[in-house]
Amino acid sequence: MNRWSPYFLSILRIVVAFVYGVHGTQKLFGFPAAFPMPHLPPLFLAGGMIEAIGGLFLLIGLFTRPVAFIVSGEMAVAYFMFHAPQGFWPLLNDGEGAVLYCFIFLFLASVGGGPWSVDRWWRMHRCAEKIAV
C-alpha cells in the first residue's frame, strides 16, 4: 500500500482543489449555482478570487506549497470571521467545511502536491536539464 501513497496524495489534492475552487466560481461567476448574495462585498470578492485561482493552481499542482498555505489561511479567516462567532462547535456553526479545508491545505503545504503535479514535472525537467549540461 505504501507504493500507492504518493498517488493518493495527488488524488486528494485534485479532488479537494476541484471542490474548493467551485466555491470561487460560484462567488465570481454564479456557476454552477448562483451565490445567495447578488452583490458581493469586497471581502467575499477577494475570497472568491483566492478560491478560484488557488483552486485552479492546486488542481494542477502549480506552486502547491505556497498556494496551499495561502488558501489554508483564507479558510482560517473564514472560520473565525463567519463561523466561530455563531458558537464553538463547527457542527453547530456550519464551519466544518472551513475547518477541514484549512487543515487539508495546511497538510498539502507541508507535503507538496504529489507525483501528479506540475511542480513535480517542473522539478524533474529541471533536474534532467542540469544532468544534460
Order of helices and strands: HHHHHH
The percent of residues in helical segments reads: over 70%
Integer tally of domains: 1
Number of distinct beta strands: 0
Low-confidence stretches: none
Span between N and C termini?
37 Å
Computed Rg? 17 Å
Shape: globular
**Beta-strand content:** under 5%
How would you name the oligomeric state of the polypeptide chains in this document?
single chain
Q: Mind explaining what this structure looks like?
A:
- The chain is mostly helical and 133 residues long.
- The mean pLDDT is 94.
- It has helices at residues 5-29, 42-60, 64-83, 90-93, 96-111, 118-132.
- The chain is globular, with a radius of gyration of 17 Å.
- It is built from six helices and no strands.
